[in-house]
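Q: My collaborator sent me two sequences in one message, no labels, and asked for predicted structures for both. Can we handle them in order? The first one she listed is below.
A: Yes, handling them in the order given. First sequence, followed by its structure tokens:
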Amino acid sequence: MTFAQHLQAFGSQTALVLEDGTSISYAALAREADAVYTAAGAPTRRRTLVAIECANGLRSLAAYLGALRADVPVLLVDAELDAPLRQALYQRYGIAYVHTPAGWQTSSYAPPALHPEVALLLSTSGSTGAPKLVRLSPQNLQANACAIAGYLKLDESERAITSLPMHYSYGLSVINSHLLVGATLVLTSEPMTARAFWERMREREVTSLAGVPAQYAILRQLRFERVALPSLRTMTQAGGRLPDALQRWFGELAAQRGQRFFVMYGQTEATARIAYVPPHRLLEKIGAIGVAIPGGRLELRREDGSLATLPDETGELCYAGANVMLGYASTAADLSGPDQQQGYLRTGDLARRDSDGYFYVTGRLTRFIKMFGNRIGMDEVESQLRNERHDVAVTGRDDLLVVAVRGASPTALEDLAIVISKRYRLHRSAIRVVGVHDFPMSGAGKVRYAELLTDVAPASAG
């Protein structure tokens, strides 16, 4: 059972405020959600996997909640993802029913067998359309929503705006945790750079704002300190590391205004949230990811698997909690696989713990970067480009995706940068496509990615 089964318990309380100002009660939202799965074209067989092409609107949200209420397993997909990438996902996983903003669409794909606890599938990278999915259960969703509502102290007086896409685990966690407590969601598809976004913030008396590092960097540039938002009480940040200077700036601004600024850490594999920094400790713990969320446990593992227990000793960050996924899926056959994690997640991040028990991420074990709230698999980007006959090696860091190309003209390099920007929905300034004579290689014939990054994009040149 999840929060979705109990929507009607909040009755006439306002669940949603639509972009045109219309208010939708919890009772009405429950009816809308249920109607999606009795509409023409909806699947009739129990537990048939469906996909929802998501936008931040009533139709997508109702389809998601209706799936949870009807025990229909669902894959959330960015409606703006390139059509070939969407279709490749549907074909790979045998998804014959797709809910779009216009209604249901069907195909002839054979529905796959599913683990009985699978409720939600999320891509490990919403921007590349990576075929690897995270399998989440109703218990995962409920546990994470409860933990988030607990440490944020959410109640029915909250009004959160949809500043993040719902197909993204952080954006979805905002939705889940607020609906859990009977709060109000102010729906918008406007970006933070739009005047209409801030007008909606003021007019709808929004109390909570969520953002990823790129959004907070934009707010700083837009002189956020001059923006009058009398109803705003809480700001939250996740989706990658926020630079220390911005953590301090927003922490100090929030303190001056009597607001709360939460720096948080999570992964899709943990249904979004793993750790947070309590606002009253933020300014003394700049750079930390904080402590485990309620009901969870963080620990560090050495290379030999033993626990790293000394203050400031580095190890792989591991998390235990009821919000840990069932496991990954890379093929349709994986969807019926067992619970591979048993509530325990090795994050792939290196971290240390200080003497107060606060954790700090110091590096990564795996080839992923987080940009604009999306996790980018550099191996996946490289594979896609090589399949298109580009001789490339892909590396990067959290503020920059670097593509080194052998044997390409300056015009071809710029053309490729534009393609990458559009395909993966990254700002052009966050992409560096460079021509190289050769890639640095190891004795085993593998690309030395760290050396390549240092050669073509040293951090000081960021």
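Q: And the one she listed second?
A: Here it is, processed independently of the first:
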Amino acid sequence: MTKVIDIVKIMEDYAPVTLAEQWDNVGLLVGSCNDKVKTVLVALDLDENTVNEAVNVGADVIITHHPILLTPINCITDDSVTGRLLIRLIKQNISLYSAHTNLDTTKGGVNDALAQKLGLTNVEELFTIGFEGSARMGNIKEQTLGAFVDYVRNMLNSTVIKCIGDKSKQIKKIAVCGGSGGHMIDGALQNGCDAIVVGEAKYSDEQKAYQLGLGLIEAGHFETETIVCEEIAQRLKAVTDNVKIIVSKRRLTYYE
């Protein structure tokens, strides 16, 4: 019989906690290592609807990318959204495991999944000071920035996509970073990239990319990261017996 500790070990073999940034909070956040597991729900985020989905499918464990306990809390009460979610998990005996920046960086994680989804070839790690190994870079068939924006929109099913730069510019070398990715502008330029695909970037990053002539495509935080959920599910299915692995059907995007 599979237990929570077995799921923890599988996830930590896949995305070692040692790869997480110092400020991050990853691993088993709620639950008991000795609880039995028959069903696992994989989701990008935890919110009330995710918990409802977990209850409906009978999940014993929820695995998320974004940790709900990223900043310290002083109490667990129903006076806060976080408190209410944690109380529900505990009452329903549902364990919660999160892999965040370690999942961004690890081989086969968020950024490798994004690079693969967008069809990059000759994929390598993009080293940026303070975020070593988290981003990826590779090649695409030479095309205009505008054509590649349309391709990204279709491949990631992005409801809202932003593009900074000359859409008629020819591009061939691309860097990718799921979620927040403005920090990789310098590294992308240093490595000869023509454009970068990120989930989101700050206004100052948009200005910087424009002024330096680097194409910047913001395809959505959710859209650039949710693809890793299927990767997690496939890895769990490959090494577990008699455990039902379900990828959340929730589409948590806040833009229309």
